[in-house]
Amino acid sequence: MSGNITDESTGSWTAAARRQIERRLPWENLLPDRQPFYVGSWVYVFGVVTIAALAWVVLSGVVLAAFGPQWWHLSNAGRFFNSMHFWSVQVFFVFMVLHLWGQYFMASWREGRAPTWMIGVVTFAISIVAAFTGYLSQQNFAAQYIAINAKDAVNSTGVGGFFNVLNFGQMYGLHVMLFPIVVILLVFLHIVQVRMRGVVPPIGHEQKPAVTLNLRK
Amino acid sequence: MISQRSAGQTFEQGVRTVRYDLLKELAIAMAVSLVVILGLAFFLSSPDVPSVTIQSWAQADPVDFTTTANDELAGSSVTASYGPPYNQGTGSVQSIGPFSPQAWAGVHVNVDQPTDFVINPLKQAASNDAQLSGEISTYQGASADQQGKWHDAYATALKDAKVTDGKVTVADGDYGPVPAMLGRLVLLAQTGALDGLLLSSNHFYQTDYTKPLLFINDGGYISGLADGQHLTGNQWGMMNETGLYPGQTWLWLYTLWYQIPPFNQVSYTDLLVVLMMVLLTTLLMLVPLIPGLRDIPRWIPIYRLIWRRYYAQTKATTR
Predict the structure, then answer these.
(1) How far is CA B115 from the centre of its chain?
(2) Same domain for B278 and B256
(3) What pTM does this model have?
(4) d(Cα B197, Cα B254) in Å, to the nearest integer?
(5) Which of A14, B105, B130, B266 to pair with A190, CA 20 to 30 A apart?
(6) Above 90 in pLDDT, residue A58?
(7) Closest residue of B to A131, CA-based?
């Protein structure tokens, strides 16, 4: 049925949106089972490990949020899930930074991929703020002193009255609700961008016609 | 996507393709990262050094606590002159020429430190204590000049204070009702009552720790502990954690600026560092559009390592 424009669907916003999506992101682009032969370096693993770590960050965070702030200080299970959350964030950032620099040195913004790069950088920046609110929500000495240290920088920009790093309730709410939604949405957009345009070819690679054109998959 | 097959090989848009299972790759990455995370969590746990409370501060260092409370009453603490968003002071307001977003934003988190940190908690404690109530009245009835003299004299005396059974004693002098008031505040703090009184604002549930954190930060006790945990600003504190745990290491560049001139030599260090990071982040985002920055990957042939098989194959084909 896809691709059939009928009289009934003419003028339909829904049908137009479906046709746009089908045209710009067909299933074989979204979930391809083949990749260009040059996709064969460990650099390509950094992005997928970042996504995997984000999944563990979110899942461990959901468990921590479900049981509440006291749980991760006062019970062994809570402390263990807190540790999982802590280390998954570390893994997330290590691989995100590796992914970022890997993509930089591959000049991955080439051939119409600049939006993919830009969304990636914004994701990195928002992730830093998300992690920062997490460090402020730890309810321990580090959280206290990070808040004390950070307040002057935040206040100097004029946003301290609206983003009060000394207010645990505000920081915790932002950390468990707003920032995860934003990060997950941005990562989704980033992946969609990658799948729409495909993996960036090697520098100097020019797209050549196929050896033969007599067979279609 | 148009695919072609030739001699058992598949091409897409002229490029030979190979089998690649994205979902299997994701599943393996999930499994391996979970094993690593579980291992790290199991063997290394996570940092959780207990927070400082008003109680622990007053018990560990009652002289520092009393000196800080005296400063709060006298209006000579950091918080007293801080400025927006806490009050109308100017002591911590940062500006670069006429550019001062902190001043423009104004006061949004009102903190009246003598009332919030000292007078109000004492008044609540004085509800059944006529003597304390009288001392507060005496203090509030005195002129600002008289209050200032009491505070100055008491601050000087506190430098040689002695602590006996948690109580602070100083040489005799004309300090008015200040020692009695602050002596009672120390007792309130040492029992833990002041932790609750600083949070209360006519609501049962509390999650805003602005006032106790500002009060604690005005003293010297917490910065001494932070120094021991390498958390202070000149120790790259923003990117550190307590103990040997990794902190926000991704903030290394942000923290770096605080360590070097001219950033650490001006009165508006924070504002300058934040603006620098906003600029650098914007540049990073706009790399694809900036000649020079976008060409660096071509000049540094790391890409030849990443795609070494491609280039080796291309070289072999062109021979």
Answers:
(1) 24
(2) yes
(3) 0.91
(4) 36
(5) A14
(6) yes
(7) B248
Domain count for chain B: 3
Q: How far is CA A43 from CA B128, B150, B208, B248, in A?
A: 71, 68, 44, 23
If asked whether residues B62 and B145 sit together in one domain, one would say yes
Predicted confidence (pLDDT) per residue in A115-145, tens digit: 999 999 999 999 999 999 999 999 999 999 9
A 10 A CB-CB count for A215 gives: 12
Domain region containing B6: 1-45
- pLDDT tens sequence across A60-117: 999 999 999 999 999 999 999 999 999 999 999 999 999 999 999 999 999 999 999 9
Task: State the average pLDDT over residues B266-281.
Answer: 97
State whether B246 and A90 contact (CB < 8 Å): yes
State the Cα–Cα distance between residues B304 and B319, nearest whole angstrom: 18
Taking the C-alpha atoms of residue B175 and residue A117, their distance in angstroms, rounded to an integer, is: 65
A156/B102 Cβ within 8 A: yes
* Residue entry with tokens 């505070």: B151
- Residues B106-149: tens digit of each pLDDT: 999 999 999 999 999 999 988 889 999 999 999 999 999 999 99
Which residue do the tokens 């958390």 mark?
B231
Which residues does chain B have within 8 Å of residue A90's beta carbon, measured at their own beta carbons? Answer: 40, 246
> In this complex, is the C-beta atom of B315 within 8 Å of any C-beta atom belonging to chain A?
no
Does residue A92 sit in the same domain as residue A143? Answer: no
pLDDT at A214 over 50: no
Q: Which domain holds residue A192?
A: 114-197
ipTM score of the complex?
0.92
Cβ contact, residue pair B250, A128, below 8 Å: yes
Q: What are phi and psi of B268, to 5 degrees?
A: -115, 40
Distance from CA of B67 to the nearest CA of A (A): 20
pLDDT tier at A1, thresholds 50, 70, 90: very low
Place of tokens 């690593």: B36
Whether residues B101 and A157 touch (CB distance < 8 A) is answered with yes
Question: A-B interface: how many C-beta pairs under 8 angstroms?
Answer: 302
Name which of A166-180, B37-51, B175-189, B224-238 the model is least confident about. B224-238
Are A87 and B46 a contacting pair at CB < 8 A?
yes
Q: Does A75 lie at the interface with B, CB-CB under 8 angstroms?
A: no
Pairing of strands B9-12, B3-6: antiparallel
For residue A139, being part of any structural domain is answered with yes
Instruction: Name the amino acid, one letter, at A176.
Output: V
Among A32, A145, A160, select the one facing B85 at the smallest CB separation.
A160
Residues 11-30 of B with CB under 8 A from A: 11-23, 25-26, 29-30
Domain end residue (candidates: A106, A129, A158): A106
Distance from CA of A25 to the nearest CA of B (A): 10
pLDDT of amino acid B318: 66
Query: Could you identify the residue written with the tokens 């660096």?
Result: B296
Contact across the interface for A52 and B271, Cβ inside 8 Å: no
Statement: residue A31 has pLDDT above 80: yes
